[in-house]
Write a structure and sequence with these properties.
This protein is an all-alpha fold. The chain has a domain at 17-91: Dioxygenase LigAB, LigA subunit (Protocatechuate 4,5-dioxygenase, Chain A). It has nine helices and no strands. Helix 2 (26-34) runs parallel beside helix 7 (80-89). The radius of gyration is 16 Å and the shape is globular. The two termini are 28 Å apart.
C-alpha cells in the first residue's frame, strides 16, 4: 500500500522526501556526495559551473547550487543530508545553512531554536495562512 503523502502538502515549510523526489534529485544528491573528497571539493571551487556540468542535473538544480538556494535544492529533490555536503564544503554550519531557508538571519534563527523552535500559531496549515 502506497502511503498518502498528499496529506502533508498543507503543512508550511514541509518537504516530504518521497521516492519521486529521490528520483528527481538523484543527480543533485550524487553531486553532493561527490563533495566528500577534497579533490572534488577543490575541482568544484575552482570552476563551479564546469564541475556541475559533469552531472545530469536540470538547469534549475544547477542554478540552485550556484546561488546556494538550499530551499530550491530541497524542492527539486535534494535531500538535506546530502545537501549538508555543500554547506560543509563552504564552511557553513547547519544553522547558517538552514537560516537561509527562513526569513531570519543566523542570529535570529539560532535564538528561535534555542527558545524552543518556531511558534506553531499560524504554521499549522497553509490554508489558515491564506497560502492554499
Amino acid at each position: 500500500m502506497k502511503p498518502n503523502f498528499e496529506q502533508f502538502n498543507d503543512i508550511p515549510g514541509t518537504t516530504i522526501f518521497t521516492m519521486q523526489m529521490a528520483q528527481k534529485g538523484f543527480q543533485l544528491n550524487e553531486f553532493c556526495m561527490s563533495l566528500r573528497t577534497q579533490e572534488n571539493r577543490d575541482r568544484f571551487h575552482a570552476d563551479e559551473r564546469k564541475y556541475l556540468d559533469e552531472w545530469e542535473m536540470s538547469e534549475d538544480q544547477k542554478q540552485a547550487v550556484l546561488t546556494r538556494d538550499f530551499q530550491k535544492m530541497l524542492d527539486s529533490g535534494g535531500n538535506v543530508y546530502f545537501l549538508s555536503k555543500i554547506f560543509a564544503a563552504e564552511g557553513m554550519s547547519y544553522v547558517q545553512a538552514v537560516s537561509t531557508m527562513t526569513d531570519m538571519n543566523v542570529e535570529q534563527y539560532q535564538a528561535m531554536m534555542v527558545a524552543g523552535g518556531r511558534n506553531i500559531e499560524g504554521w499549522r496549515s497553509k490554508k489558515e495562512r491564506g497560502e492554499a
